[in-house]
Write a structure and sequence with these properties.
The complex is a heterodimer of chains A (732) and B (491). With 732 residues, chain A is α+β, with helices and mostly antiparallel strands. Chain A has three domains: 2-35 and 444-576, Aldehyde oxidase/xanthine dehydrogenase, molybdopterin binding domain (Aldehyde Oxidoreductase, domain 4, 2-Layer Sandwich); 38-137 and 194-266, Aldehyde Oxidoreductase, domain 4 (2-Layer Sandwich); 397-442 and 583-725, Aldehyde oxidase/xanthine dehydrogenase, molybdopterin binding domain (Aldehyde Oxidoreductase, domain 4). In chain A, 25% of the residues lie in helices and 25% in strands. In chain B, strand 11 and strand 12 form a beta hairpin. Chain B is globular, with a radius of gyration of 23 Å. Chain B has 491 residues and is α+β, with helices and mostly antiparallel strands. In chain B, the strands form five sheets. Chain B has a five-stranded mixed β-sheet, with helices on one face. In chain B, strands 3-2-6-4-5 form a five-stranded mixed β-sheet. Classes of the chains: A alpha+beta (732), B alpha+beta (491). At the A-B interface, helix 1, helix 4, strand 27 and helix 16 of A face helix 1, helix 2, helix 3, helix 5 and helix 18 of B. The complex binds flavin-adenine dinucleotide and FE2/S2 (inorganic) cluster (FES) (2 copies). One FE2/S2 (inorganic) cluster sits between chains B (112-118, 149-152) and A (191, 241, 469).
Chain lengths: 732, 491
């Protein structure tokens, strides 16, 4: 199916199942521990061997020799496969760093060997015996030190944009702001470590793994193994969180495949937690400069956003300026990105890549200029709202209600009680409120599904879509139930298997809208098949109460299916509505904090997000996404930072003890409100993503609240007490 | 003394008795469950005690009473489970049967997204429910400190905890209803024998008694004593160290004794943070918060004060607090005992006053004199589940005239060992307890310490905070308002 004209009324609009607060259908599996994650797959007749990975101890250079003699002799060891043994391998298209093979080291903890043994303990013990000799080379690890060498990245990433005359407008603006902001390297820190099991059957390999994008992995794994893609079968039915960390093929799958081939037995490999931050990808640090010029009435006349980030050679920039091209009006504009070559682990997508760190900076800048203008920051944002793409004014937003989100949020949050900076006290606590806009584009991806109706009247959906905790199982079931006129208990959902039609996968907040649209398309096919089998005119058939009706004829779905059942399969493809219309999601984040005047400790007191994200397919799962994202934003604002050792080139705090994600006690009362809206330009579902929107802007709202509480402006994340304490008023 | 030797360990795993004779010293409970027993409900998120995905309950008989506690299976060695009852998430509901009330509550409040943390939360909440069926939010947060969730944002999980008692009836829970039978089974496993299993890097022992421990350790002074394994567990899972032979002590009831007399409290070396908490918070209310902020609940259920001291880390939390109290350790070598002031026990980084074959048998904490002022502050980046950047402990005696007659100040995180601040102490002693003398003592701290810069904190920050903590102590003893962020205010 091709979606190229805005949706009109369709069966989803019945909203009998879609849009209802239905509990996740996999809740029971998860609370009982029966949901099967990658490392847990088990065929009772197979004896699995265990692989333990060894990571590089240098960040850049060459391996000159690997001595695995002692490890090979250790008890229980079946094999040691080293990066030298396998030689240079073809890198998959989507990774920047190579995952395994050859003597070149591109980053710390790059996989250099896997030790395979009968038991996990034996493999781990023997892994400690591997000796690797390196010829290290000097690397670049410090983004700030490399600023001067940063280059304009590949033009395909559209690093620069401009319209009007920014320089002239900025230099003559009545009120200006010119400030630098920094965001640190961040880690996805999902709870399930990367893990894979590989089992070969002749030339074919089956991999159980933890992947957000089945087809991307399958393609890249086939390339790296040098086999035909058809020979690779990938399964990922449950994923213990990803946040972008499992978008692209990872080393555990490659190591497991080589190890299994070598020992002639299925092998399990998990990345130890301590290897994850340096072996896999992370959200790269940025240095951002923002300039805003405005007239005295508070209208933006010039807005400029530049961002510097680093990556391995061949990598890309963190696209932190993207939202600035679209979020606020203003005639004269420029954005630019520069990329430095760094020999740190690969920088790549983490939840809301680009917008998350971009808004961390932009939304502080907006707070600052509003203050300079003596304006309320909400009023300033409303004044500079735009209903068209400011760089291409002939291109409208499909639907944009940022103003509605901010107004409603202000009312619900009690924004009118906000005092001037540094003026509200409760005992030794300084209290402040902050606001920020949330913004994230709505992306769409082709997505396929197969829907089968059987003689019991059960509808089974098969798609390689993944559920990384987002609720895909549930919303796919809801969509199917709505389309086929059955209860959700009559729908079975099977996900995460490369034998199923290729879907959008989970990423870029495109998963829910795209994948359910693919299911919609397949259901349309199945409806046609049912109608045509019954000789109904497919235009006026109604699917309801497990029946299909046309005029005064009604046939039960089970009967219609017949003994052989019926199948519908299709892929949703997208026309150019995302080009003719800018499709984005919007929100307002509101935060109240208390800051201890003596120690600078910040505690968050309340949070509210108001989101405008098209139709909400399931308010329970959507709300849960936004709340989880707000929580991640608290970490981003206050504690999360991968500390770089700029001498040796690695992330020092590479575990959950050192990389501090929020815990219970950090999280206060959180509320989410969804605007009641639909966006017919987005898809037949009229939905857009919410999974990343919830993170966009939160950290800036916290930073702004801290400023409002203390009068101290911190522009460098995370806002730890050492950055505040020197500036706080005296404790008297 | 002749002891009898058994060459297997025995424990209950869910509903079954398990007897193992081929088990390695370094095998963790988590790997045993997941890889050997195919009980895959319990998850591994970190293998170092930080995330709680691996939480299971361990029931243990202590003086006839059976108590279940949440523990981190990832850093708990199988060898330590002799005589225990291990309860895993897999046993809570049968396929097709009803969910356990805790699981039902988690489903109904939508407390799970990716689900990877969920079994761990279920077990922590189960443990809480059994001890405290109607917990307050603060008690729930305390029970869940050691469980991380990256997806849900926690609020739904708190609501689940509150809903459990509405959904379920504790009296009908199998671990309550069948308690007498379980106790009987566990009693029958006790035979007073020493356990010895394995060879080389796999070898471990469970002494039959403290005397037996003393004997074993003199004979094998290179053996590694393991108490709660919250430090040693990580040496294996994270640093891949060879620790054999291992000598466990957590099963020895004698080392879990607590004696209170008129001079103070003596904790056996095997007493966990959780076991010591009621007496600590009663007699030293100033330590309540510190105790509540050591690790998470699972770590506190396993970890011991003795281990915290013997580990000798400069950032262990109890040493500064106990040094300021004038605590001492009872060291035992063979049949000989000696008592050493805790401050003298720490010699330099990585070195303590402990002879080969000598172990910590008990920790003695004297009560505070009536007029003493005492406080401990732990400074971390994240409030809960975090390691101190700086930990400061202060005890002052001020006479009727307002003069400081005695000052003891100790910090962790400021030097290679937990260390007293002698310059600051003498700056205070004999002077009036005023802002001026506080400031003089703050300045003197620069002579006491040259802290390190690491990623937790810079040297400058450490020194500044060390000074400010002294000021905070002054303000708190003078004013009536606490100069710190209160959990209750913030949430
Ligand atoms: C997630 C996590 C969080 C933590 N948070 C904190 C924290 O906030 N604050 C803090 O201070 N610590 C923390 N720790 C560290 C640890 O919990 C403590 O140091 C604990 O007190 C160690 O006690 P244990 O019984 O587990 O010791 P073990 O790990 O069993 O042993 C530690 C060391 O002491 C030796 N030892 C133990 N008992 C004796 C004895 N009786 N005689 C001689 N030697 C002995 C062992 O041989 C070993 O060298 C944390 C650990 C984890 C895993
Ligand atoms: S696996 Fe993370 S605490 Fe055990
Ligand atoms: S649900 Fe994913 S970590 Fe908690």
């Amino acid at each position: 199916m091709q979606f190229d004209t805005p949706a009109t009324t369709n069966p989803i609009d019945q909203l009998k199942v879609v849009g209802k607060p239905i509990h996740r259908i996999d809740g029971e599996l998860k609370t009982t521990g029966r949901a099967m994650y990658a490392y847990e797959w088990r065929d009772p007749n197979t004896r699995y061997a265990y692989g333990y990975p060894v990571g590089s101890a240098i960040a850049k250079g060459q391996i000159t020799a690997i001595d695995s003699a002692a490890a090979k002799k250790a008890p229980g060891v079946l094999a040691v496969v080293t990066t030298l043994d396998v030689g240079n391998l073809q890198k998959g298209k989507l990774n920047t760093a190579k995952l395994f093979g050859g003597s070149e080291i591109q980053h710390y903890h790059q996989a250099v060997a896997v030790v395979v043994a009968e038991t996990f303990e034996q493999a781990r013990a023997a892994a400690a015996m591997i000796k690797v000799d390196y010829a290290p080379q000097k690397g670049a690890f410090d983004l700030r030190a490399e600023l001067a060498t940063a280059q304009s990245p590949d033009p395909s990433t559209e690093p620069d944009s401009s319209s009007g005359d920014f320089q002239a407008a900025f230099s003559t603006a009545e009120v200006t702001l010119d400030a630098e902001y920094t965001t640190p390297d961040q880690s996805h820190a999902m709870m399930e470590p990367h893990a894979s099991i590989a089992a070969w059957n002749g030339e074919e390999v089956t991999i159980w793994t933890s992947s957000q994008m089945i087809d991307w992995w399958r393609t890249d794994l086939a390339t790296t193994l040098g086999v035909d893609k058809e020979k690779v079968h990938l399964m990922s039915p449950f994923i213990g969180g990803g946040f972008g960390g499992k978008l692209f093929l990872r080393a555990d799958a490659v190591l497991a495949a080589f190890a299994a081939k070598t020992v002639g037995r299925p092998v399990k490999v998990a990345l130890p937690r301590t290897m994850i931050s340096n072996n896999t990808t992370h959200r790269p640090a940025t240095i951002q400069r923002i300039r805003i010029g405005a007239d005295r009435d508070g209208r933006i006349t010039a807005i400029g956003h530049e961002s510097w980030s680093g990556d391995l050679a061949g990598g890309g920039p963190e696209t932190a300026v993207m939202q600035t091209r679209l979020l606020y009006a203003g005639e004269n504009r420029m954005t630019a990105m520069k990329l430095a070559t760094l020999d740190l682990p690969e920088g790549n997508a983490m939840r809301a890549p680009g917008e998350a760190p971009g808004l961390m900076a932009l939304e502080i800048a907006v707070d600052e200029i509003a203050e300079k203008l003596g304006m309320d920051p909400i009023e300033f944002r409303i004044k500079n709202d735009t209903q068209v793409d400011p760089e291409n004014p002939e291109r409208p937003f499909s639907h944009r209600d940022l103003v509605g989100c901010l107004k409603l949020g202000a009312e619900k949050f009690g924004w009118d009680k906000r005092a001037s900076a540094g003026s509200r006290r409760e005992g030794k606590l300084m209290i402040g409120m902050g606001v920020a806009a949330a913004f994230r584009n709505n992306l769409v991806m082709p997505s396929g599904a197969r829907v089968k109706l059987d003689k019991e009247g059960i509808v089974t959906v098969e798609t390689d879509m993944t559920d990384i905790g987002t609720g895909s199982y549930t919303i796919v079931a809801q969509t199917t139930a709505e389309m086929m006129g059955v209860g959700i208990d009559k729908v079975a959902v099977q996900l995460g298997d490369s034998r199923f039609p290729v879907s959008a996968g989970s990423g870029g907040q495109f998963g829910a809208n795209s994948a359910t649209s693919g299911v919609y398309a397949a259901c349309v096919k199945l409806r046609e098949a049912v109608a045509s089998k019954l000789g109904f005119n497919s235009k006026d058939v109604i699917f309801e109460n497990e029946e299909v009706r046309s005029g005064n004829r009604a046939v039960g779905l089970a009967v219609a299916a017949g003994p052989d059942g019926l199948v519908g399969e299709d892929t949703m493809e997208w026309g150019d509505l995302t080009k003719t219309h800018q499709q984005s999601t919007f929100g307002g984040h509101f935060v109240e904090v208390g800051v201890d005047i003596a120690t600078g400790e910040t505690r968050i007191r309340r949070m509210l997000a108001v989101c405008a994200a098209g139709r909400i397919l399931n308010p329970i799962t959507a709300r849960s996404q936004v709340i989880g994202a707000m929580t991640m934003g608290v970490g981003g604002a206050l504690s999360e930072e991968l500390a770089v050792d700029t001498r040796h080139g690695f992330f020092v705090n590479h575990d959950l003890a050192g990389y501090e994600v929020p815990v219970h006690a950090d999280i206060p009362h959180q509320e989410v409100i969804f605007m009641d809206e639909t966006d017919p330009y987005s898809s037949p579902m009229k939905a857009k993503g919410v999974g990343e929107l919830g993170l966009c802007g939160v950290s800036a709202a916290i930073a702004n609240a801290i400023y409002n509480a203390t009068g101290v402006r911190v522009r460098h994340y995370p806002i730890t007490l050492d950055k505040l304490i020197g500036e706080l008023p005296d404790v008297a | 003394m002749t002891v009898q030797i058994r060459s297997s360990i025995r424990f209950l795993l869910n509903h079954r008795l398990v007897e193992l004779s081929a088990v390695s010293a370094v095998q963790t409970l988590l790997d045993f469950l997941r890889l050997d027993r195919n009980l895959r409900g319990t998850k591994e998120g970190c293998a170092e005690g930080d995330c709680g995905a691996c939480t299971v309950l361990v029931g243990r008989l202590l003086e006839g009473r059976l108590k279940y506690e949440s523990v981190n299976a990832c850093i708990r060695f199988v060898g330590s489970l002799d005589g225990c009852h291990v309860v895993t998430v897999d046993s809570l509901a049968q396929p097709g049967g009803p969910l356990h009330p805790v699981q039902q509550a988690m489903v109904e409040t939508h407390a799970s997204q990716c689900g990877f943390c969920t079994p761990g939360f279920v077990m922590s909440l189960y443990g809480l429910w059994m001890e405290n069926p109607k917990p307050s939010v603060a008690e729930i947060e305390k029970a869940l400190q050691g469980n991380l969730c990256r997806c849900t944002g926690y609020a739904a999980i708190i609501r689940a905890a509150e809903a459990v008692s509405v959904i379920g009836d504790l009296d009908r829970d199998p671990l309550i209803a069948e308690r007498a039978t379980i106790i009987q089974k566990l009693e029958s496993l006790k035979d007073g024998k020493r356990v010895e299993i394995g060879e080389g890097s796999e070898r471990f022992l469970l002494p039959a008694s403290v005397d037996d421990l003393a004997e074993i350790y003199v004979a094998e002074p290179k053996a590694r004593i393991v108490a709660g394994s919250t430090d040693v567990g990580l040496w294996v899972t994270k640093f891949m160290r060879d620790i054999a032979p291992v000598v466990h002590l957590s099963h020895l009831d004698e080392l879990r004794r607590i004696v209170v007399d008129e001079t103070g409290i003596t904790f056996g070396a095997g007493v966990s943070y959780t076991e010591s908490f009621p007496l600590i918070s009663k007699h030293f209310p100033q330590l309540t918060e510190l105790w509540n902020r050591i690790g998470g609940q699972q770590v506190r259920n396993m970890g011991t004060i003795g281990g915290n001291i013997a580990n000798g880390s400069p950032i262990g939390d109890t040493p500064p607090a106990l040094i300021a109290l004038g605590a001492s350790v009872v060291l035992r070598l063979g049949k000989k005992r000696r008592t050493v002031l805790l401050e003298d026990f720490f010699i330099e980084y990585g070195k303590q006053d402990r002879q080969p074959g000598e172990f910590v048998e008990a920790v003695k904490i004297p009560f505070l004199p009536e007029n003493a002022l005492y406080a401990v502050y732990k400074i971390t980046k994240r409030l809960d589940e975090d390691i101190s950047a700086v930990c400061g402990a202060f005890r002052l005696t001020v006479d009727g005239a307002g003069t400081v007659t005695d000052a003891v100040i100790a910090y962790g995180g400021m030097a290679g060992t937990p260390k007293r601040a002698s310059h600051a102490e003498s700056a205070l002693t004999g002077t009036a307890w005023t802002e001026a003398s506080t400031e003089a003592a703050m300045e003197a701290l620069a002579q006491d310490y040259t802290p390190l810069t690491d990623w937790r904190a810079s040297a400058d920050y450490r020194l500044l905070v060390a000074k400010n903590l002294l000021r905070r102590f002054y303000l708190e003893t003078k004013g009536d308002e606490p100069v710190r962020l209160d959990r209750k205010q913030a949430v």
